[in-house]
Design brief:
heterotrimer; A mainly beta (81); B alpha+beta (299); C alpha+beta (323); A: 81 residues; mainly beta; four-stranded antiparallel beta sheet; B: 299 residues; alpha+beta; Cyclophilin; 2 domains; seven-stranded mixed barrel; 12 strands; 24% strand; CT_C_D (chain B); ATP binding (chain B); Carboxyltransferase domain-containing protein (chain B); PxpB (chain B); Cyclophilin-like_dom_sf (chain B)
């Protein structure tokens, strides 16, 4: 099985949900298409969607909700289709 | 009634360096006409001297600030110059050319009312409106009387800033007649553009929609910021108010508000502006009479 | 022309700044790191006032539609020209059709792209700097978007002979090591308790994710104020003063400190307690969210010496370039 890791394209705070009361964007085991939003990063008073750059199944979520992240940090591991 | 403006015995300015390229001068820790007029007088004179190396000259309510290039103008020389100006300036003999402007306000308007009702949990008095609360803590019997007081004497623009075009306005009455209202306990996340707000001892006009913590009294149909400079009164600058301007807030009704808005949106409205020479001395002596003379020129 | 293929997170056109309007609430804007901006301009033969592209945290991808000369300075963004790595702090030749792509910032936060002749946008109040709050300057007063097209100013002469010039290693900042930011204490620091004044300089502060071109909000210990009787016209909060002007670089303390940057709010009612010196405003703007900052109190003389040293460095860089 080939895996890929979605990395943070910017530093900030990683959120797994669009809003505190909303469900998470993705759980382990979910299938995502290329371009699907897997989380958002809050930085400079705005929120940036983090999109999957491939289609596959989420095998590991590598950061906690509201974690402080650096650009380049591993966020989500995917098993490619 | 012969109310006078109580003069400050003396100011004791503090000269402070802001890094290597700013001088900040706090004329007084509290607001007074003496402190503000001193800030006006010194900044106007330093502007006239046109010293090489000066980048920004910013009068504020009870202080002023200069941004300069220390490679051209030594910081200590600048402070010496400012101290000398301070020594030489006698407000009794100082006058300046300024403008008096008719500033219509729709008090208790529907837009700021809707906003303030959304943020009652941020307020000192959730069961009253901002006007009712301000009237009560300033000893007025009704919001209506309070509005009459706010619109009853002109305001001087004692500072412009925070964002482009926002004027701080200080009412030209003796201290005992000054309105004082605290800001919201927690700032709002929203305020309509052109809202007329009040915080501390100052009226502010919000140039654009945004966060804010001032008590909301009304909305003016006039713009204070016109980025595209479409309106004739913004020909020279995208910001309308200038420090030292005198604004005469005039209570208007919805009909007049709508009529003015229409002209503003057409880009045809011309602000009513008259040139006046302001004399601190005459103002200090008999503010009410002096204000009446000032306002007369608008008729 | 330069076509913006991917704009990145927050990319704007900036120059040396817009001056003379602070008293009506207009901040200078301009490149947050004036040192990197100036060096980039020098490398391509421009005056320091020419407009450059400022990229924050995330680089952009550009396609050039003419031959020209460029330089990239500031935070490391692993630039590639047509897929091949190219150096930063060096004069580079680009040809019609070339694609320049930059990644995210790894050492520093902001990167500058200068092009011979400068980025040509219409000046507003004599500056090409973008001030997004009211939407003036730069490219339509906003951050760049995918598909925008930038016009290159007239360089006057062929600048290709500058290609290959580079900045000596000793003059290239290592931004991630620059955690000490020098300040001149003062302004309204009389509002702080002696302990808080000391703590301001002793504590480790952390850049928060909100930090932007308006201000750098920092996280750290609680600041405490001296008790007082509220002066007439000041707000009721212990941090309030009668509204006053804020220097760019000043540290205001609505509890946690905020250092005002080049898109500053120009004044307000929070006590200011010191000012980051002009040279170190550049360095602070290269700190990334979550990185530590330590304030170091210096005298006016030390601040002026730092400024002089920086001017000499810039002159030395300019003189080292072979035309």
């Amino acid at each position: 099985m080939t895996t890929t890791t979605i990395k943070a394209p910017m530093p900030g705070v990683f959120y797994r949900r669009p809003d505190p009361d909303d469900p998470v964007f993705v759980e382990e085991g979910d299938h995502v298409e290329e371009g699907d939003v897997i989380g958002v990063v809050g930085v400079m008073k705005s929120f940036q969607d983090i999109k999957s750059d491939a289609s596959g199944t989420v095998s590991k979520i590598l950061v906690e909700n509201e974690a402080a992240i650096e650009a380049g940090d591993d966020l989500v591991e995917l098993e490619l289709d | 009634m012969t109310a006078r403006i109580e003069r400050k015995e003396s100011l004791s300015p503090r000269y402070e360096y802001g890094g290597d390229d700013y001088v900040f001068v706090e004329l007084d820790q509290e607001m007074s006409f003496d402190a503000n007029f001193e800030a006006m007088a010194i900044t106007q004179q330093i502007r006239e001297r046109d010293l090489p190396g000066i980048i920004e000259i910013c009068p504020a309510n009870a202080s002023y600030m200069i941004h300069f290039d220390p490679d051209v103008l030594a910081p200590t020389d600048l402070v010496d110059e400012l101290k000398q100006l301070e020594q030489e300036t006698d407000l009794s003999e100082y006058q300046w050319d300024t403008r008096i402007i008719d500033f219509p306000v729709l008090y208790d308007d529907p837009w700021t009312h809707e906003t303030l009702m959304q943020f009652r949990e941020n307020h000192q008095d959730p069961d009253a409106t901002d006007l009712e609360y301000s009237a009560r803590i300033n000893g007025f019997d009704s919001a209506d009387e309070f509005i009459d007081a706010h619109a009853g004497a002109p305001h001087m623009v004692t500072m412009v800033g925070f964002v482009p075009g926002l004027p701080w306005c200080f009412q030209m009455v003796p201290r005992e007649e000054q309105i004082e209202v605290p800001k919201y306990l927690q700032p709002r996340t929203d305020t309509p553009s052109r809202a007329v707000g009040f915080g501390g001892a100052f009226t502010a006009i919000y140039p654009v929609q945004g966060a804010g913590g001032y008590q909301l009294f009304g909305r003016t149909p006039l713009e204070v910021l016109d980025v595209d400079q479409q309106l004739p009164s913004f020909k020279d600058s995208m910001v309308f108010p200038k420090p030292g301007d005198i604004l005469n807030f005039r209570r208007i009704d919805r009909e007049e508000y709508d009529a003015i808005r229409e002209e503003i949106e057409d880009g045809t409205y011309e602000y009513t502006i008259e040139a006046v020479e302001f004399s601190p001395e005459e103002f200090f002596e008999n503010p009410h009479e002096y204000n009446a003379q000032l306002v007369e020129v608008l008729d | 022309m330069i076509k913006v293929l991917e704009a990145g997170l927050s990319t704007t056109i900036q120059d040396a700044g817009r001056y003379g309007h602070y008293h009506i609430g207009m901040p200078p804007s301009g490149a947050m790191d004036q040192f990197a901006h100036t060096v980039a301009n020098y490398l391509v033969g421009n005056d320091k006032g020419a407009a450059t592209v400022e990229m924050t945290y995330q680089g952009s991808d550009f396609k050039f539609t003419e031959d020209t000369v460029i330089a990239i300075t500031g935070a490391e963004m692993a630039p590639e020209l047509n897929g091949e790595p190219v150096s930063m702090w060096e004069t580079l030749a680009v040809s019609d059709g070339d694609v320049l792509s930059l990644q995210f910032a790894t050492n520093g936060a902001r990167t500058y792209l200068a092009v011979a002749g400068g980025i040509d946008v219409t000046p507003v109040m004599e500056s090409r700097s973008t001030y997004t709050l009211v939407g003036i300057g730069g490219y339509d007063g906003r951050t760049l978007e995918d598909g925008d097209t930038l016009t290159i100013g007239d360089a006057g002469a062929d600048r290709s002979s500058l290609v290959g010039n580079s900045v000596a290693d000793e003059h290239i900042p290592n931004y991630d090591d620059e955690d000490h930011i020098r300040i001149v204490l003062g302004l309204c620091d009389y509002r702080l308790t002696d302990e808080s004044k000391e703590e301001l300089c002793d504590a480790e502060w952390t850049v928060t994710p909100e930090a932007d071109r308006v201000g750098y909000r920092l996280e750290g210990p609680e600041i405490e104020f001296k008790p007082r009787e509220q002066p007439f016209g000041a707000g009721t909060d212990p941090s309030n003063v009668v509204d006053l002007g804020y220097p760019v670089g000043s540290i205001q303390v609505p509890q946690k400190p905020i250092v005002l940057m080049r898109d500053a709010v120009t004044g307000g009612g929070y006590a200011t307690v010191g000012t980051v010196i002009s040279t170190d405003r550049d360095l602070l703007s290269q700190r990334r969210t979550h990185q530590p900052v330590y304030f170091q109190s210096v005298t006016l003389e030390e601040a002026l010496a730092a400024r002089k040293a920086r001017t000499e460095t810039l002159e030395s860089i300019r003189n080292s370039l072979t035309p």
